[in-house]
Automatic annotation (TrEMBL):
Signal peptide: 1-19
Gene3D superfamilies per record: Glutaredoxin
Name this polypeptide is given: Thioredoxin fold domain-containing protein
Thioredoxin domain residues: 6-144
Length: 151
């Protein structure tokens, strides 16, 4: 019986740990739909296929356990290819390609992280590659400056 309890406990911990092994990336329209039932900020990773710093973010920053936990807990995370003109989706009554959405968000460098507040009205940008600690610090500072109520 003790072995069975130990086995279930181990499986539970393994499942919990597994759920935080990577960031849950969504498509833009999936994040918007999820936001309707459970409002959270959106974190949009705007990238291109040729961007070396984007690949470095994926390999180093977005695999960091603290970054994974923070993003999964506080955001709907979205990957948006700034050069994809084929995949389209509807947003606020208009049809956008990923490239059109990146342009609408005024993204001009990569990687670029766009934070959209839960009401989907205001955005703020955090451009450039950052190591895990610097990324979290920059993200927190951006949110504090851009979205916190002013006294």
């Amino acid at each position: 019986m003790k072995k069975l309890i130990f086995l279930f406990g181990f499986l539970f911990l393994a499942a919990t740990a597994y759920s935080q092994e990577k960031i849950t990336w969504l498509k833009f329209e999936e994040a918007v739909a999820a936001n309707q039932s459970n409002p959270k900020m959106l974190l949009v990773d705007v990238y291109t296929d040729w961007c070396g710093w984007c690949k470095k973010m994926d390999a180093e920053t977005f695999t960091d356990p603290e970054v994974i936990e923070y993003i999964n807990a506080n955001f709907y995370a979205v990957k948006l290819n700034a050069e994809d003109t084929q995949r389209t989706f509807d947003f606020m009554g208009k049809k956008f390609s990923e490239a059109q959405m990146a342009a609408a968000m005024r993204v001009r460098s990569y990687p670029n992280f766009v934070v959209i507040e839960p009401k989907l009205q205001n955005i703020a940008q955090l451009p450039g590659y950052r190591e895990p600690d610097a990324f979290l610090a920059g993200l927190n500072e951006l949110i504090e400056k851009a979205f916190r109520p002013k006294p």
